[in-house]
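Usage

Read records sequentially. Each one opens with the input sequence:
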Amino acid sequence: MADSEINAVEFKELLSSSSTPDGTHGLFKFKTEQGDFTIALPNSQLPKIMAALSDVSSKNARVQTGNQRQVMAFPCNIWDFAQGANDTVNMTFRMPGGMEMTFQLGKKQVPLMKDALTAAESGQPVIPAFGQIG
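and closes with the structure output:
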């Protein structure tokens, strides 16, 4: 870590991840200079951690490249769209190695997404379509 003012334990490598037998916590084992270290995160905190990791990854990419539009993009090798609850579509994306994330999109947003995908496929600028689920 570059900033010597930060008081933190640097996790050198993620060694493994699993769940507690009762399914209430995620267990994450890291390698540190002080030895292996396991943290237990309650399920209620996992979505917050996932969002924070994504945000920090993109911020770090912007700092490292100097490009303020840089994002951390994950490769996707399998995707699936399925009917969701309450007039939504569930979009599931799986990355190599097994990481899988599912997002919900309101059915009214589907035509906007189709337009954006068509524009991206043809090399045209894509105008973000931000909308509410529903």
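Summary fields computed downstream for this record:
- The mean pLDDT is 88.
- The radius of gyration is 19 Å.
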